Amino acid sequence: MDISKIDQIIDKHDGEASSLIQILLDIQSEHNWLPKEALKRVSEKLQVPMSRIQHIATFYKAFSLVPKGRHQVHVCMGTACHVRGAQRVLDTVQEVTGVKSGETDSDLKFSVETVNCLGCCALGPVMEVDGKHHGNIAPSQIASVLNNCE
Amino acid sequence: MTRLNSPEKLECARKDIVSRIDPTKPCISVCAGAGCLASGAAEVIAAFKTELDFHGLTTEVNTKGTGCPGFCERGPIVMIYPEGICYLKVKPEDVPEIVSHTIKEKKVVDRLLYEDPATGTRALRESDIPFYKNQQRNILSENIRLDSKSMDDYLAIGGYSALSKVLFQMTPEEVMGEIKKSNLRGRGGGGFPAWRKWEESRNAPDPIKYVIVNADEGDPGAFMDRALIEGNPHSILEGLIIGAYAVGAHEGFIYVRQEYPLAVENINLAIRQASERGFVGKDILGSGFDFTVKVHMGAGAFVCGESSALMTALEGRAGEPRPKYIHTAVKGVWDHPSVLNNVETWANVPQIINKGADWFTSFGTAGSTGTKIFSLVGKITNTGLVEVPMGVTLRDIITKVGGGIPGGKKFKAVQTGGPSGGCIPEAQLDLPVDFDELTKAGSMMGSGGMIVMDEDTCMVDIARYFIDFLKDESCGKCTPCREGIRQMLAVLTRITAGKGKEGDIELLEELAESMGAALCALGKSAPNPVLSTIRYFRDEYEAHIRDKKCPALSCKEMIAFHIDPAKCKACGSCFRQCPAEAIHGGKKLIHIIDQEKCTKCGTCLDVCPSRFGAVRKISGEPVPAPVPEDKRAIA
């Protein structure tokens, strides 16, 4: 891991402790997770105890303390999708990938997560793979979408 | 870009922008809101650019990506000006035809127009479509007129004139008076009068004050704030600066969910543009008033939509709420007075200033003035964002604007207010949409999610769904919320799994009562979905508990799939597609579901051709014994 990149992120936020969440968000989007060395660096530079960083990293859902898979599968579980059968979509995704919601497989191919509303309720139920929305998806179409992922 | 340092210069700049706009020049506006983007709007915009280039029309025709006009069901939406033609469900393949027919030959492409499902008549313009015709779109109507990334577009429709008016023609007290007179109530959920927060903050002795936009829109099924902040970010910013002036704040925050990357991008861009032109920063428009604003991204925590939790998050800590004996308007961010309002509330402010409180109160009811934006979703024909005056009935919203329930199904309930709200049944549909009326019915206005449910939705499961959502989102700081929700979920899961016991309903009611002691609104209102479903749909709870039957045929553990031997034509669709290989089939053999292997995914029901309709769901009764082997042959 390139520690100078972490320093750049911290400097971008003027090294202020109040920007801790924003700094962690930037690290998360850079690495897709929060590596321990990065957190240590943040703790040193901002003079914030590691316990507080851990508190934040585990409190907010955007953060991950383990590496994520190459393909991010998000199943929308918002109310509109729920009434249109999101649970069946999630069940099928879990079956096809063999990954439970919130987990990543051992060869880091898929991370499966549920999200509460992607804001495109007209398309429900929605599955999002690597940022691309698949709207009105039927459980029978899921395998073919996911099998296209390398 | 030069800073505009007087109201006169602002008006000059505006005139200049308007003079450069040729109203007769064709303009193609494509909705670039989240819903349309998800259904391919970016590809449509790209196709228009390529096609116009091919015809050498790039300079003669404008193309822009605009904010969301609301009709998500029929996206991507394309508007052609100056005629105002509205094309729906446009695909990149349709683009060459639109350019050659509509742009070049001024002819209409009939098949892309809205078609009334009942009469078959087509509607040329937005205003002819029933979905739009029955709304009062004071705020949302601006979205489609604006390129959401262009400040000039906002200035062209009169942007920042309200700010200029308050800074030069009104005292902070007068601004406060106007907002008070308008009786603008918080659009984020509670409906707390905006002026009261403002006044409390203004009167607090601390000289350092903050104003905050709450764009942490976490209610599942609600995306009004997203559409506003993505589509018309300058209107939110203008409202916020006006609020800052009234309150006496010089710093502000905009708290946006990181799940809304486009909103984050557009509001950041708007702040940069506004700073360049002197609407943000030191000495705004030469008035001597200073104001700076920062965007803070939320990191995924529903509870941060609560004011004190949001403010804790702004300080860079875990967003947990605190008791509010002292209001955040007096002691908020870093213990300074902080006024927090929802996106839609701020968006109303410039209009109230420009058009006056009397104009604003001409919409709505005595207690709830103005309009409200709802996201109308679920089992409804016209999914999308709708803006209606307060006081219209739920029935009008669902039938006139929403177009009723699709697929000939029967309406069952409408859920308002997100996880803090409740379900309203058919019998209450004539209730006017008003902060106080909805609360009386056991629900609440909430931020504006309106989820329509039909006969296939199980109300016990909906209650379980919300409680399950809240179990994940409870911050865990106070016991009534943390433990109460967990226990409620255990009882509801038990009921939906067919293991409910006599007394469970009473236990839920008892738990609900004790949760009134929770620290913040999340916990206090958490029982609402449960209590309202018990109140209106007690029979469904009882059917689950006593008859082990899910009347909506939805709870997985209480249903079974069965192939009617008299209807099965052995087409093999279900046999081939069953992911669990639970179907015994064969050529000219009646298909049978192996109940042991069946995962109840429902694929067989989906794929059974409707002309056969052989697969059905059953609940509360034994599955008929399979047809004996010697009787399976179909002649």
Automatic annotation (TrEMBL), chain A:
Keywords (A to Z) from UniProt: 2Fe-2S, Iron, Iron-sulfur, Metal-binding
GO molecular function, a single term: 2 iron, 2 sulfur cluster binding
Cofactor needs: [2Fe-2S] cluster
PROSITE patterns: COMPLEX1_24K
Keyword Ribonucleoprotein: no
Protein residues bound to [2Fe-2S] cluster: 76, 81, 117, 121
CDD domains: TRX_Fd_NuoE
The record's free-text note on cofactor binding: Binds 1 [2Fe-2S] cluster.
Tree of life domain: Bacteria
InterPro entries: NADP_DH_HndA-like, NuoE-like, NuoE_dom, NuoE_N, Thioredoxin-like_sf
Pfam families with a match to the protein in the record: 2Fe-2S_thioredx (PF01257)
Similarity remark: Belongs to the complex I 24 kDa subunit family.
PANTHER family named among the record's database cross-references: BIFURCATING [FEFE] HYDROGENASE GAMMA SUBUNIT (PTHR43342:SF1), NADH-QUINONE OXIDOREDUCTASE, E SUBUNIT (PTHR43342)
Name of the protein: NADH-quinone oxidoreductase subunit E
Native source species: Geobacter hydrogenophilus
Automatic annotation (TrEMBL), chain B:
Keywords attached to this entry: 4Fe-4S, Iron, Iron-sulfur, Metal-binding
CDD domains, alphabetized: TRX_Fd_family (cd02980)
InterPro entries with a match to the protein in the record: 4Fe4S_Fe-S-bd, 4Fe4S_Fe_S_CS, NADH-UbQ_OxRdtase_51kDa_CS, Nuo51_FMN-bd, Nuo51_FMN-bd_sf, Nuop51_4Fe4S-bd, Nuop51_4Fe4S-bd_sf, Soluble_ligand-bd
4Fe-4S ferredoxin-type domain segment(s): 559-588, 589-621
Highest taxon listed in the record's lineage: Bacteria
PROSITE patterns attached to this UniProt entry: 4FE4S_FER_1 (PS00198), 4FE4S_FER_2 (PS51379), COMPLEX1_51K_2 (PS00645)
Signal peptide annotation: none
GO molecular function, one term: FMN binding
Family designation: Belongs to the complex I 51 kDa subunit family.
Protein name as annotated: NADH dehydrogenase
Gene source species: Geobacter hydrogenophilus
Phylogenetic placement of the source organism: Bacteria, Pseudomonadati, Thermodesulfobacteriota, Desulfuromonadia, Geobacterales
